[in-house]
Amino acid sequence: MARTRAHNPRPFKREKHDHRRCVTTALDRAAKVCAAKGARLTAIRRQVLELVWQSHRPAGAYDILAALGRKRDYVAPPTVYRALEFLRAQGLVHRIESLNAFVGCERPGEPHCGQFLICRACGRAAEMADGRIEAAVRRGLAEAGFALERPTVEALGLCPDCQPPAEAGNA
Amino acid sequence: MARTRAHNPRPFKREKHDHRRCVTTALDRAAKVCAAKGARLTAIRRQVLELVWQSHRPAGAYDILAALGRKRDYVAPPTVYRALEFLRAQGLVHRIESLNAFVGCERPGEPHCGQFLICRACGRAAEMADGRIEAAVRRGLAEAGFALERPTVEALGLCPDCQPPAEAGNA
DNA sequence: GGCCGGGTGTTATCTTATAACATAACGTTC
DNA sequence: GAACGTTATGTTATAAGATAACACCCGGCC
Ligand SMILES: [Zn+2]
Ligand SMILES: [Zn+2]
Ligand SMILES: [Zn+2]
Ligand SMILES: [Zn+2]
Question: How many other β-carbons are positioned within 10 Å of the β-carbon of residue A138?
């Protein structure tokens, strides 16, 4: 039963990691996904995607707008929103509803239900891929007679790095 | 193992139901919850709660603002937002992040993870109470080392009433 | 009275998002 | 390579959602 790993046990990256690699991987994957679908990853869309991946903190549309303004001539809000909508339609970014912000998708190409941990201390958001959560959600909604289109789970809290140190030897 | 019902199998109300009863129940419960906590359910807060319960469609802050203006003298946005924030802190309403809107909580007093089905056709939102989803979410987040504070599940789709009729005899 | 704190009123402003229309770039066909 | 339909972007204006900052009121308390 070729069961892929049920979930990623470490959704939050280390504080220090080779983030340039995150970015290049994301851009490479995006190119592949778009090519496979015949979608056009234009210059602006690519730049917006790159800016979304600037960090693991969700980026607001106007943050991206401002950053984009530094790279090229000023662009107006609709341009950014259109690019973000395109990227979301391709499954390349997720929108974090509770923050009105966007993060790059960790698993583009694989359809999945968005599951996010949002740290209210450091602001990072990590995407989980817990098959059990997804299964529970899909089952619950099916039992409610609901035709599911786009489920998302968002949890606000404290990431491992931002939690006060445990008193006892509780790992 | 006094297991409460795992979930409500019919989160969406019938089109026609005695909705006044929904409202009065909600207001009664709110009074009890506030009394128990020593929180003051003032006139404005109560009116805002009543307006949130006007229907099972999530109400935007400015919808409430407008409706409130019809009942009493004009109130400014901060008044409504403060009332909504109070109600949310008391667990009397939930915010639907993906809609920037608010719905009354079906189970005030019982701490729970918000689970919502949002129909993109009729606009209604139904709160689920699926213990298995909640358990899966809590477990997944705990395994990720995440200190959980406020998990929510939101699913966009079509409610049973709004789905195209099934072709075959598939219930 | 004088003080405090919670709740509300008021004004102004900020952030987020989209409507509507104009223009440019691309791909195809002949 | 001109004409055409299609998709993407530019531009202007505005809608929609949310909050900051400060004033005021009112009840309880000393
Ligand atoms: Zn990274
Ligand atoms: Zn953190
Ligand atoms: Zn009702
Ligand atoms: Zn519906």
Answer: 16
State the CB neighbour count (10 A cutoff) for residue B115: 27
Q: Class of the B19-157 domain?
A: mainly alpha
Q: If we measure between CA atoms, which residue out of B154, B141, B129 comes closest to residue A132?
A: B141
- Give domain limits for chain B: 19-157
| Alpha-carbon span A9 to A1, nearest angstrom | 21
- Tens of pLDDT along A41-60? 999 999 999 999 999 999 99
Chain A residue with the nearest C-alpha to that of B156:
A150
For strand C, give the nucleotides within 7 A of a protein CB. Answer: 6-12, 15-20
Model-level pTM?
0.88
From the list A9, A143, A153, which residue is nearest B143 (CB)?
A: A9
- Evaluate if the CB of A76 falls below 7 Å from strand C: yes
Of chain B, the percentage scoring pLDDT greater than 70 comes to: 91
| Chain B CB within 8 Å of residue A137 CB | yes
pLDDT in tens, A129-163: 999 999 999 999 898 888 778 899 999 999 888 88
